[in-house]
Amino acid sequence: MTGRIIQGRPIAEKIKDTVKSEVDSFKQLYGYIPSILSIIIGDNPEAHLYLKLRDNACRTVGIKSLHEVLSSDTSENELLDIIKENNASNNIHGMLIQFPLPPHFSLNRIMNTLSPDKDVEGFTPRNLGNLLIGTEHLVPCTPLAVIEILDHEQIDLQGKHVVIVNHSTVVGKPLTALCLNRNATVTVAHVYTQDLMKMTQQADILITAAGVPGLITSHHIKKDCMVIDVSIVKTNEGVSGDVVFSEVLEKASWVTPVPGGVGPVTVACALQNMMRTASIIAKGSNDE
Ligand SMILES: NC(=O)c1ccc[n+]([C@@H]2O[C@H](COP(=O)([O-])OP(=O)(O)OC[C@H]3O[C@@H](n4cnc5c(N)ncnc54)[C@H](OP(=O)(O)O)[C@@H]3O)[C@@H](O)[C@H]2O)c1
Question: In the chain, what are the domains?
Answer without folding.
Answer: 30-116 (3.40.50.10860), 141-264 (3.40.50.720)
